[in-house]
Hints:
Elements: E1 2-5, E2 8-11, H1 19-25, E3 33-37, E4 40-42, E5 57-62
Parallel strand pairs: 1-5
Antiparallel strand pairs: 1-2, 3-4, 3-5
Amino acid sequence: MELILNGKKTELPDSVNTITLLINYCKLKKKVVIVELNGSIIEKNDHEGTSIEDGDQIELVHFVGGG
């Protein structure tokens, strides 16, 4: 599957087909992640049930500490 992830064309295995699986694939499981799918924010409770498809545009934003 090919999609736009954080502004870059990205090839993913077809098995990565939900927001939750994408977060796990990107190794962001233990972080607070804001997900935008095709211009809409996806609530955390909806990550597992939200499918992703070839051509989707996804932004994953996570917070990094520091000063």
